[in-house]
């Protein structure tokens, strides 16, 4: 005789394992701070790479007009603007990424806890059936 509650529970658990379960298990292996810090660092590294590529492309595209009117003062001012924009982007992206990854870790941890609760409920159902 099939226990319908047990079948529903097993179906929900299997759907979770095939869906978000794999990613959640990887995320939940980290401490919250470690997970957020690692992914924030990766985000900042990719931001740095993208920003440098963008500045390089803009510099190549406007090289001739830039060189015609370039003085030492303008060069220093341009460098300060480029570094200032970069620092603002790093702060904004870093804070946002940290918040996003902390929330992602928290949600994954909750789903994994629910999965383990369901697993223990399933174990109890099997033990109850054996008696």
Write up this protein.
By secondary structure, the protein is mainly α. The protein has one domain. Helices cover about 90% and strands about 0% of the residues. It contains four helices and no strands.
SS-derived structural category: mainly alpha
Whole-number tally of structural domains: 1
- Runs in which pLDDT lies below 50 for 5 or more consecutive residues are none
Residue fraction in strands: under 5%
How would the global form be characterised?
Answer: rod-shaped
- Provide the gyration radius in Å: 26 Å
Number of strands: 0
Query: Number of helix segments?
Result: 4
Query: Into which percent range does the helicity of residues fall?
Result: over 70%
Notable characteristics:
131 residues, mainly alpha, 0% strand
Question: What topology does this entry show?
Answer:
Elements: H1 4-28, H2 32-61, H3 63-68, H4 72-130
Helix pairs in contact: 1-4, 2-4
Give the gist of this structure.
With 131 residues, the chain is mostly helical. 92% of the residues lie in helices and 0% in strands. The chain is rod-shaped and about 90 Å long.
